[in-house]
Design a protein that fits this description.
Elements: H1 2-22, E1 30-32, H2 35-44, E2 50-52, H3 66-69, H4 79-85, E3 89-93, H5 98-106, E4 111-114, H6 120-134, H7 137-151, E5 161-165, E6 170-172, H8 177-184, E7 188-189, H9 190-193, E8 199-201, H10 204-210, E9 214-217, H11 235-241, E10 246-248, H12 262-274
Parallel strand pairs: 1-2, 1-3, 3-4, 5-7, 5-9, 9-10
Antiparallel strand pairs: 6-8
Length: 279
């Protein structure tokens, strides 16, 4: 019986999404369960169509469109809250709120799951997928146009390397949207050249010894008193920063992969031309 209810919910969601593609009656009460889904909704539909956004939507540090979201309600993502909103579509991620989405599907609430796009082709497909479910296919191309423009020239030869560095000594190697941004900004990715794949650890020793031409950092302002963020104050890193340009990319520009990554690309390009060193 339990499996039958789950399968029924999945089938109901699939039928809804297929119907919405051909129907002019697009969803009118949409709920988002993540900051990434928030950005897709805020970019594609009018505020009155959004029943609620994620609890991060109003946070100016990680929500790129927080100003647009300020008058829209948010939830903590619990199934109880969402069911009371009576949504006709919920947009969620595969990496959080699994129990919530199971309950929603069992209650015949359509759920659209976002993936983790990495390349422009991935992002393009994801954007069209969301736009189709929302009945906003034309807006998809409009949103992607800025990203396409920012990616122009990404295949040109790159002579300099950039290292991405996060709290705790984490970095991003092959098959990450961060690498897509670094390449689009005109740099090779140090983590990839060291053979790293996905989200990996980059030790401070490796960073200092390999001497990238540019150091890119983000998320160090979150929990500034934690051990992971205090790594930025390490004496070796401070000495390295004295001779290496550093660009701190605002967290909101790449809290996740999506059409809005053009902001991170353009930010890197602008700052790289200035070759400013931050401490």
């Amino acid at each position: 019986m339990f499996l039958r209810r789950i399968c029924g919910g999945l089938l109901s969601a699939a039928v809804f999404l297929l119907a919405s593609v051909s129907s002019a009656d697009a969803p009118k009460r949409i709920v988002s369960l993540s900051v990434c889904a928030d950005q897709y909704l805020l970019g594609m539909v009018e505020p009155h169509q959004i029943a609620a956004l994620s609890e991060d939507a109003h946070n100016p540090r990680i929500s790129l469109q927080h100003e647009k979201a300020k008058d829209i309600p948010t939830t903590r993502g619990s199934a109880e809250e969402i069911l009371l909103l009576n949504p006709d579509l919920v947009i969620a991620n595969r990496w959080r709120g699994v129990k919530t989405t199971e309950i929603l599907r069992q209650s015949d609430i359509p759920v659209l799951m976002l993936s983790l796009p990495v390349t422009f082709e991935d992002i393009q497909a994801e954007t069209h997928k969301v736009a189709q479910a929302l009945g906003e296919e034309e807006r998809a191309e409009t949103l992607l146009s800025d990203l396409k423009q920012a990616l122009n020239g990404q295949d040109q030869a790159k002579t300099q390397t950039a290292a991405y560095f996060m709290p705790g000594g984490y970095s991003a190697g092959q098959n990450t949207f961060v690498e897509t941004v670094i390449h689009a900004a005109g740099y090779r990715n140090l983590a990839s050249e060291l053979g790293m794949k996905g989200w990996s650890s980059l030790s401070l020793e490796e960073l200092v010894l390999d001497k990238p031409d540019l150091l890119v950092m983000s998320f160090f302002k979150r929990g500034r008193h934690s051990l992971s963020t205090r790594l930025r104050q390490h004496s070796a890193l401070q000495e390295f920063i004295k001779t290496t340009p550093v660009i701190d990319v605002p967290d909101k520009y790449w809290a996740c992969g999506g059409w809005f990554l053009f902001e991170a690309i353009n930010y890197l390009k602008r700052r790289a031309h200035g070759t400013q060193t931050s401490r």
